[in-house]
Design brief:
The chain has a 7-stranded mixed β-sheet. The model has no long low-confidence stretch (mean pLDDT 94). It has 4 domains: 139 residues, Beta Polymerase, domain 2; 98 residues, Hydrophobic Seed Protein, CATH 1.10.110; 90 residues, Methane Monooxygenase Hydroxylase, Chain G, domain 1; 50 residues, Serum Albumin, Chain A, Domain 1 (Orthogonal Bundle). The protein is built from 20 helices and 13 strands. A hairpin with a 3-residue loop joins strand 7 and strand 8. By secondary structure, it is an alpha+beta fold.
């Protein structure tokens, strides 16, 4: 019996078939269904050409029409519907130079990367598996469709995808697949860093990340990743950590901390600047937060929003238990959790002291902030004014 997500998408397949076309569920959703894992997006392959798909369904978006893909929107849910196709000669070890629409499901499945992703399912729940994908799932094995060397020469990013699937599923690489990665890993140099970073991030977030990192080292694929060619020892250390990151910031910050990356190295991965900033904040914290006792009032205040990331990384690196819940409770109990919560602001102080703005103002606000944080004065405007005047006269006891 199909699960609910497939049931909801059945109307698309049934509609295509009523109009005389073949249509099947394909790809990762079928794989995850057979593995009894949560499903992501539901993809459909069909013999209908893109213009035919768009003429059949009232709500469509031509998201990748040159490659045969049309987004069909049914009851508020989007589904990618792609015409059966085969791909011609590849360019730059990544993109097919031309795509040819075909009428055969077999030819469409034949072009896919791994056997476990080359499984289709019809509207009755029957499995179509011409390349042994279901057996690969039973063996927990990742193997290419056809010749591994040919698949990786077509699209070198598939090598990173293979290790990403190891991290997500805990599968092993088939011998031929692993040997081909060892032989053709250098082709990864032709792939855009942004695409590599997407796969690497998924690898870092996988529950079997350690296994994937070990394979990254064993196949020497790490040598072709930005700034990692000399980091074999550090990567081996990363593979010893058992705590699985729950957020991309945590994943990248832990990785950067272990392999000693800073802003310069992170930029080589073409990560967004705002994201690099968040990672660098975590790295700064980890330089001096090495044990639970290092979480002081000041460090809790400074790094409050990043506590879950920092504490989980600290615990992983120390093979310790993370104390995220305890630390968040301590942070929430602080008199203030950021400067915006102060009951006084710069304009209040300018009026109080009848002075022009200058460096003194920033110093005064910081002093007030620390006094409130350490409970030397209550966070009430009049009391803060009184404290500010006393502090300015260096008469803290008045």
């Amino acid at each position: 019996m199909m699960n609910e997500q497939f049931q909801q998408a059945l109307s698309i397949i049934e509609t295509l078939k009523r109009h005389g076309h073949e249509a099947y569920f394909v790809g990762g959703a079928v794989r995850d269904y057979l593995l009894q894992r949560p499903l992501g997006d539901i993809d459909i392959a069909t013999s209908a050409h893109p213009q035919e798909v768009m003429s059949i369904f009232p709500k469509t978006v031509p998201v990748g029409i040159a490659h045969g893909t049309v987004m069909v929107i049914e009851r508020g849910v989007s589904y990618e519907v792609t015409t059966f196709r085969k791909e011609g000669r590849y360019e730059d070890y990544r993109r097919p130079k031309e795509v040819t629409f075909v009428s055969s499901l077999y030819e469409d499945l034949q072009r896919r990367d791994f056997t476990m992703n080359a499984i289709a399912m019809n509207e009755h729940g029957d499995i179509i598996d011409p390349f042994g994908g279901t057996e690969a799932l039973k063996q927990r094995m990742i193997e290419t469709v056809g010749d591994a060397a040919e698949r990786f020469n077509e699209d070198a990013l598939r090598m990173m995808r293979a290790l990403r699937f190891v991290s997500q599923l805990g599968f092993s690489l088939s011998t031929k697949t692993k040997q081909a990665i060892i032989q053709y890993g250098h082709l990864l140099q032709h792939i855009a860093v942004e695409r590599i970073a997407v796969e690497f991030e998924k690898l870092l977030l996988g529950p079997f990340m350690s296994k994937a990192i070990d394979l990254l080292i064993e196949t020497n694929l790490f040598c072709y990743l930005p700034e990692l060619a000399t980091k074999k020892r550090e990567l081996a250390q990363l593979a010893t950590y058992s705590i699985v990151p729950t957020h991309r910031t945590e994943a990248w910050a832990r990785f950067a901390f272990v392999v000693h990356f800073h802003q310069k190295e992170l930029k080589k991965w073409k990560l967004p600047n705002h994201f690099i900033r968040d990672v660098l904040i975590c790295l700064k914290a980890l330089e001096h937060i090495r044990s639970l006792s290092d979480w002081t009032v000041d460090t809790l205040y400074e790094y409050g929003p990043y506590i879950p990331h920092i504490e989980r990384i600290r615990a992983a690196c120390k093979h310790d238990e993370p104390h995220v819940h305890l630390l968040l409770k301590r942070w929430e109990a602080l008199p203030i959790r950021n400067r915006k919560e102060l009951a006084i602001n710069g304009n209040d102080l300018l009026t109080l002291f009848e002075r022009k703005a200058g460096p003194w103002l920033a110093t005064m606000i910081e002093n007030i902030e620390r006094a409130v944080l350490h409970r030397k004065v209550e966070n009430e405007k009049e009391k803060l004014k009184e404290w500010a005047v006393c502090n300015q006269r260096r008469e803290n006891n008045c």
